[in-house]
Specification:
By secondary structure, this protein is of the alpha+beta class. The protein has 23 helices and 22 strands. Among the domains are: 207 residues, 2-Layer Sandwich (Heat Shock Protein 90); 123 residues, Ribosomal Protein S5, domain 2; 108 residues, Four Helix Bundle (Hemerythrin (Met), subunit A) (Up-down Bundle), CATH 1.20.120. The longest helix has 24 residues. The termini are far apart.
Length: 635
């Protein structure tokens, strides 16, 4: 038996490991299994270059839970270790066996060496986060000399023991004696959930327990002529060792991509709109598949759907800061050995490789969108309503993406027609340029509620855009800043003559005295705190009253509600509206001829309530009163 003290700078490394090495204790299982995978991959590499000539056999890694003995065992048939290697790689934790391995086989290609870089060192010691004692039983793949099987044992103090044991098979077996504080890791479902989270796509099969499956009995039928099935118990294999992102795009079909999407998100019932297969090996290594989902109005529901891997080992599904903000709306997988497993988020955010990866993905997304637009414009337009939020998010938050997406970003009008920015500019230039040579984009964020305003605009020959998406308020601001001499105005923000001011102006049918008299009648029947009254010389066919809202103030309020600008200086400012009286309306001429004050008030209230109703502002008792009054008028 050999006794010794682990060569560490501090007197006791284990309390530090338990507290500070990893923020989440469950990560220990990922680390230990990653080590087992590394050991197995190394053996396969040695065999492929002729350095190991023995049989490989079944290389499945076993995870064995024994709640009675309070142990969790991870067992591999990889390269194993000699007593000397235990001393070097376990007792002297400053060394990394994987780094030593790569140095030894420098002749291998970069891709091959990256595939066998492990974390045997600090990763192994993460086992002490949940264990009161750890045993390591190992036998090297090497033949001859000092190659006896060894057992290393440590109870969480710097002291350890190493003894010879009788172990027939090569490989390493790590037995964790789970401590009282970590008894959750003795529950089968807890371990199963961790394995599915962290080991789902590891390149070596991982077996944990058994499962019952239905198996068809070949050539046997029941009395109705249907196939016969029998329930059998088989080893439960956790992982898909050859995930789709590791294959060449040319070898994958659309159905393969859809099936893999369902494998990633089993609770999602909608197919993705399309996908991007990433595959690059210079200036960094990156593979992956990103999917465009149908983006729902709740953007938060969409996030945390990209799974980040390093050599098929799961790292995180919170990639904010690693990829641009708007890319977090995508779903899928990114795998890069250039992203280290055990580093802080602040490191990832400042790492040069991560920044290159982020820019590469953004470029590939833009490439894919351009390809779809150019290849099949009609199909792209059909997808537009589902992908518009994603593209707008990118254009608002990333200047480089705006430059790429500007050419393929679309406007949709109330007729359901789609235009690029340049196409729409030409479409409205003739009719919607005002007397100051400014181009005015009219839009609605509620086609049904603002129907009367839309129809009035159409009657003037104007076109109205539909901008009713969750990010449209922010998007309008972003686009307005890019387009020269152009303004976006909601179709109900003012009268059409004010929204797009032309040279000509209609004369008023009312003189100053008549307006003053009319003003007194109106003001005694409206909510003066909420409405600012003004008179406009509109067409006789226009409504008597129109309710409008200042474009700038309303836009700031809308942006505030969706978490954007304006919040700092808008505060809890109450909603204010403009009540525009049509000075040329026939109803007001009739009102001035009526001398009975009660009848004057009744008519004004009816016209006023109709205007409120058109903006969905008539509610409660006021709505009930309006309905009764309308019935009385009909009678």
């Amino acid at each position: 038996m050999q006794k010794g003290k682990i060569n560490v700078q501090t007197e006791n490394i284990f309390p530090i490991i338990k507290k500070f090495l990893y923020s989440d204790h469950e990560i220990f299982l990922r680390e230990i299994i990653s080590n087992a995978v590394d050991a197995t991959q190394k053996l396969k590499t040695l065999a492929s270059i002729g350095k190991y000539k023995g049989e490989l056999g079944d290389l499945t890694i076993q995870v064995i839970l024994d709640p009675k003995a309070k142990t969790l065992t991870i067992k591999d048939r990889g390269i194993g270790m000699t007593a000397e290697e235990i001393d070097k790689y376990i007792n002297e934790i400053a060394f990394s066996s994987a780094e030593e391995f790569v140095k030894k086989f420098k002749t291998k290609s970069e891709a091959e060496t990256n595939a066998i870089i492990g974390h045997f060192g600090l990763g192994f010691y993460s086992s002490f986060m949940v264990s009161e004692k750890v045993e390591l039983l190992t036998k090297t793949y090497k033949k001859g000399g000092a190659t006896k099987a060894m057992k290393w044992e440590c109870d969480g103090s710097p002291e350890y023991t190493v003894t010879e044991i009788d172990k027939k098979d090569r490989g390493t077996e790590i037995v964790l004696h789970i401590d009282k504080e970590s008894k959750e890791f003795l529950e089968e479902q807890r371990i199963l959930s961790l394995l599915k989270r962290y080991s789902k796509f590891l390149p070596v099969s991982i077996q944990f327990g058994t499962e019952k499956i239905s198996e068809k009995l070949e050539g046997e039928k029941d009395k109705d002529g249907n196939d016969k099935y029998i329930e059998v118990e088989k080893d439960r294999i956790i992982n898909n060792t050859s995930p789709l992102w590791k294959k060449k795009p040319a070898d994958c079909t659309d159905e393969n991509y859809k099936s893999f999407y369902r494998e990633l998100y089993p609770m999602t019932f909608e197919d993705p709109l399309f996908h991007i297969h990433l595959n690059v090996d210079y200036p960094f290594n990156l593979t992956g598949i990103l999917y465009f989902p149908k983006v729902k109005k709740n953007l938060e529901v969409q996030k945390d759907k990209i799974q980040l891997f390093s050599n098929q080992v799961f790292v995180t599904d919170s990639v904010e800061g690693i990829v641009p903000e708007f890319l977090t709306l995508l779903h899928g997988v990114i795998d890069s050995p250039d992203i280290p497993l055990n580093v802080s988020r602040s490191y990832l955010q400042s790492d040069s490789n991560v920044k290159k990866i982020s820019n590469y993905i953004m470029r590939k997304v833009a490439d894919k969108l351009e390809e779809l637009f150019k290849k099949d414009r009609e199909s792209f337009e059909k997808k537009w309503d589902d992908i518009k939020v994603f593209i707008q998010y990118g254009m608002i938050s990333e200047a480089k993406f705006y430059e790429r997406a500007e050419k393929i970003s679309l406007f949709k009008n109330t007729e359901g027609k789609y235009f690029t920015f340049e196409e729409y500019k030409k479409h409205i230039k003739k009719n919607q340029t005002d007397k100051d040579k400014k181009l005015n984009y009219l839009y609605t964020n509620d086609p049904e509620g603002q129907h009367a305003f839309i129809e009035a605009a159409k009657n003037r020959g104007y076109d109205v855009l539909v901008m009713d998406g969750v990010l449209d308020n922010h998007f309008i601001n972003a686009v307005e800043q890019k387009l020269s001499d152009s303004f976006f105005k909601r179709v109900d923000a003012d009268t059409l003559d004010k929204l797009i001011q032309k040279e000509e102006e209609l004369p008023s049918k009312l003189d100053g005295k008549q307006k003053e008299e009319l003003k007194k009648i109106i003001e005694r029947n409206i909510d003066a705190k909420k409405f600012t009254l003004s008179f406009e010389n509109l067409s006789e066919s226009d409504l008597p009253f129109m309710i409008t809202q200042n474009e700038f103030m309303r836009r700031m309020k809308d942006m505030q509600q969706t978490g954007g600008g304006g919040g700092m200086f808008m505060g809890d400012m109450p909603e204010t509206y403009n009540l525009v009286a049509n000075a040329n309306g026939a109803a007001f001429s009739q009102l001035l001829e009526e001398k009975a004050e009660e009848k004057q008030d009744g008519l004004v209230k009816q016209l006023y309530d109709l205007a409120l109703l058109s903006q969905n502002l008539l509610k409660g008792e006021a709505l009930t009163t309006f309905i009764k009054r309308s019935v009385d008028i009909i009678k």
